[in-house]
What does this fold into?
Amino acid sequence: MAKSLGESSPLLLPSPGSALQLLRDLWVLAKARVVSLLVFTAAVGELLAPEGIQHWPAAIAGLVGIALAGGAGGVLNQIVEPELDQHMRRTHRRPLAEGRIGRHGAILYALLLLAVAVTVLWVWTNPLTLALTLLGTVGYGVVYTLYLKPSTPWNIVWGGLAGALPPLIGWTAVTGSVAALPLLLVALIFVWTPAHFWPLAIYCRRDYAKACIPMLPVTHGVDRTRREVLLYAVATWIVSLVPAFLNHDWIYGGIAWIAGAWFVGMALRLRKLPEGTEMDLYARKMFAFSITYLFLLFTALLLGKVVMAYGLL
It folds into this structure.
């Protein structure tokens, strides 16, 4: 049984004699694996920006700020949800859910991460980058966690906007302005997010139901969710092709076409599978592939830029 999560919990409750365990818990509390994807897409935004490499101090500061602010958002998310996390197979071992770290300690940790992030961004980037970063942090850690997730099955659609901002944040960190390409990348991640997350929600639907979280498979059923996954997968494929036309980058365009077709094909198969263990396992497989898919798209954008810049073709 999980330990008490009341406000009387000690600030930090590391496992006996294990400083390494505490570091691991802080890593998990900041959702470092999720944040790494945010930092990667922000880095691509910086590298795609005109003369982005020349502004390397602002570029590094932007990535540090995004990482710290994203970590703060992850901590805020878990501060609100330890009781819910206890009911989920994939989250019941989290530090707050098991009581290894208390709420007071987690709050201090989030404030420290956010304070350092704000300082770094304020000193070494620009007000626009700071404002966008804070918008993403508050959007995920507060708006999504406190209001959208417990109240609407469309939470991941609107809440996904916070996670879609890093390419724009990276771009503004080195340019101080907004342009069409980073806005397209924000749109790409925005439409990708439901197609990425809802397969996982299908796989975990029983846990979400047990935790009384109104995810789409719980409120509207598996069939409706699979239909929405397919629609958003197609939308992702379409939006992913627009940068190819904008930049006349046919290397990226070819990769985006093939990868998007594969992603839509997975959504079609998920749509047709009968409900059961095979469908659940395939939904989890699609969730995992969707991360690779986004990574591939952003890597292809960099590849296309390098090839065009150096006239390799």
Residues 277-309 form the longest helix (33 residues). The two ends are 61 Å apart (CA to CA).
